[in-house]
């Protein structure tokens, strides 16, 4: 459904009292809405990628809406237990943040704290230890920042290719070539960081500024420790933000992630979120064997008792969702409207947070 039509329809349904009816219904009470967020901008990241970053004021306005409409935020573990015990309070929600970007510590957590809302952070740990900009994210960001320039790939990947970054397809090609080069050459974290710095230099972007302000960085172990001590729930998201199809490698991802989290928090994660929302049926028995209690996807919807606990749907809230769409999701009304399924992500551009 077209976005404007959907907004008009939701506005009409609200005026007619349908929002109120649904949010107070038995249907809604038996369901849990798990909301997913990623980053809040430290600078202009929401202008670059509004699906992953939102302005912190926008996040605050979302939290205010939740409070004003009288929703109950439960800690994730409790919300899942009560979902399957058919014991959810009216209008229940759980809040999750993916990846563990530094801005969670600096901005998002303090906002949640203002409202005393519990939160789960799905942390990917490789770049927590190697605390430099996430390569797969910073390259597209740098390229977006200088879309007034021509990029010469020669000194980056060795290709005799010049790309006019004012064109979206040329920016995509630049990203595919640079990310692909780093993967083919199996560059280490340090080598990738040098390549990103070289890209920044050619594009005349101040890489030191990104470092000093921790833009596109993950949380350091000490910051995770502090968050956990103050009540944030830190859970699994793989060590390198990837889910290999090989069983042994998949296990390794969870084990590395789990031991890092244990080191930082003193407890073992037992709730999981699929990196980039990618899941296949093969993962389910593996997760079960590893003692994972729940796993969340990015498939839109509200969870019910019929949901598989290892395939829980979530509403991914972004800067592109208007206030009426957000409210529509809280009530549950938006979940029943027809949606255009998004095109599958280009596998060449799926981020790995790894060397
Ligand atoms: Zn992620």
The set of bound ligands, ions and cofactors reads: zinc ion
- The CATH topology of the largest domain turns out to be TIM Barrel
From the alpha-carbon coordinates, what is the Rg to the nearest angstrom? 21 Å
Low-confidence stretches: none
Helix content: 40-55%
CATH class of the largest domain: Alpha Beta
- N→C terminal distance: 40 Å
Main structural class: alpha/beta
In DSSP terms (H or I, runs of 4 or more residues), the helix count works out at: 17
Count of DSSP strands: 12
Mean pLDDT comes to: 94
Key structural traits:
TIM Barrel, 17 helices, 12 strands, 355 residues, 2 domains, alpha/beta, binds zinc ion, 6-stranded parallel β-sheet
Give the SSE layout:
Blueprint: H1 3-15, H2 18-23, H3 26-29, E1 33-37, E2 39-40, H4 45-48, E3 53-54, H5 56-68, E4 72-73, H6 76-84, E5 92-99, H7 102-115, E6 120-123, H8 126-129, H9 135-145, E7 150-152, H10 154-157, E8 162-164, H11 168-184, H12 189-202, H13 207-212, H14 221-229, E9 233-236, H15 247-265, E10 271-273, H16 283-289, E11 294-296, E12 315-316, H17 323-331
Parallel strand pairs: 1-5, 1-12, 2-3, 4-5, 5-6, 6-9, 10-11
Antiparallel strand pairs: 7-8
Helix pairs in contact: 5-7, 9-11, 9-12
The structure holds zinc ion.
Description:
It is built from 17 helices and 12 strands. By secondary structure, it is α/β, with parallel strands linked by helices. It has 2 domains: 252 residues, Glycoside hydrolase/deacetylase (TIM Barrel), CATH 3.20.20; 78 residues. The strands form 4 sheets. Strands 1, 4, 5, 6, 9 and 12 form a 6-stranded parallel sheet that branches. A two-stranded parallel sheet has the order 2-3. Strands 7-8 form a two-stranded antiparallel ribbon. It is globular, with a radius of gyration of 21 Å. The structure holds zinc ion. Zinc ion binds next to strand 5.
